[in-house]
Write a structure and sequence with these properties.
By secondary structure, this protein is of the alpha/beta class. The protein folds into 2 domains: 121 residues, HUPs (Rossmann fold, 3-Layer(aba) Sandwich), CATH 3.40.50.620; 127 residues, Rossmann fold (3-Layer(aba) Sandwich). It has 8 helices and 10 strands. It has a 10-stranded mixed β-sheet with strand order 3-2-1-4-5-10-9-6-7-8, with helices on both faces. Helix 3 runs parallel beside helix 4. About 7% of the residues have low confidence. It is found in: Cytoplasm.
Length: 265
């Protein structure tokens, strides 16, 4: 259950978007929300007072005027991870990394936070003008994929839909494997039924489907057809993203997000 949301803010427009999404989700789930900014210790003189004033303004603009931003100095990735653990955050929200910024989550910084985050991580990339209406969960038979789906479900409200997609991977040149597909469908139906019994009543709707073929083609087709605002992915131990369904697709989605991306371990 999501009880504490931590938004990491680097004073960029992308981080403003992440804060808007975090505030919206906090209102929907009833979770507490904290705002963190890290001054990179490798930088020179920094106007901390101006940064605090800007963050306080952003909190007020998002209906969080009673909040007080956390401001730390050090290596951004390390401080974000430390604060996420110390504050016992259930969800860490980041803005899309922008490679030109010295304070962004570009390259190894985003990767480090992603690989070591104790909390589920939400990469907010689309305008937060409305609540999530549709989400897709890439679901294999791993615990982390189940956790990602459960976390995504908690972010959805009345009337929203979560679609669980499983890919029975095979080279498309080989043609359909009807026997293998039937077995996978039976197992997947049972998995979804088991997960559904554990989901709280949020008013959201759950659907599921199985696709047989190459992973990238199946995922691209599902995202194109369903047009979700949120994509939930499972991450295996320490950065080894789910090879059963995702493989290198996860990095592709993080580099070029088609929507907001939620990753859970």
């Amino acid at each position: 259950m999501i009880q504490h949301i931590l938004v990491a803010h680097d004073l960029s427009p992308e981080a403003d978007l992440a804060l808007r999404r975090g505030a919206q989700l906090a209102r929907r789930t009833g979770a507490r929300i904290s705002l963190l900014h890290v001054f990179d210790s490798r930088e020179g003189d920094i106007d901390e007072q101006a940064a605090r004033a800007l963050l306080q303004t952003r909190l007020q603009q998002n209906g969080l005027g009673n909040g007080e931003p956390w401001v730390r100095r050090g290596h951004p990735a390390e401080e974000i991870l430390t604060q996420a653990q110390g504050l016992e955050a259930d969800l860490l929200v980041l803005g899309r990394h922008h490679r030109g910024s010295t304070q962004g989550f570009a390259g190894t910084m985003l990767e480090r936070v992603l690989l070591d985050s104790p909390a589920a991580l939400l990469l907010a990339t689309i305008p937060a003008d409305a609540a999530y209406g549709r989400a897709v969960a890439a679901l294999d038979f791993s615990r982390c994929a189940t956790r990602a789906m459960q976390c995504a479900w908690e972010l959805l409200g009345d009337g929203a839909e979560l679609h669980a997609l499983h890919v029975h991977e095979m080279a498309e040149v080989h043609g359909p494997d009807r026997e293998g597909l039937a077995l996978q469908q039976e197992l997947f139906d049972q998995l979804v039924e088991d997960i559904q019994q554990q989901l709280p009543d949020t008013g959201a709707l759950l659907s599921h489907s199985l696709c047989q073929g190459e992973r990238s083609n199946c995922m691209d087709a599902a995202l194109r057809d369903l047009q979700p605002q949120l994509l939930a992915l499972g991450s295996h131990s320490r950065g080894e993203l789910s090879s059963a369904l995702l493989g290198s697709l996860a990095r592709q989605f993080l580099d070029q997000p088609p929507c907001d991306i939620l990753i859970a371990r």
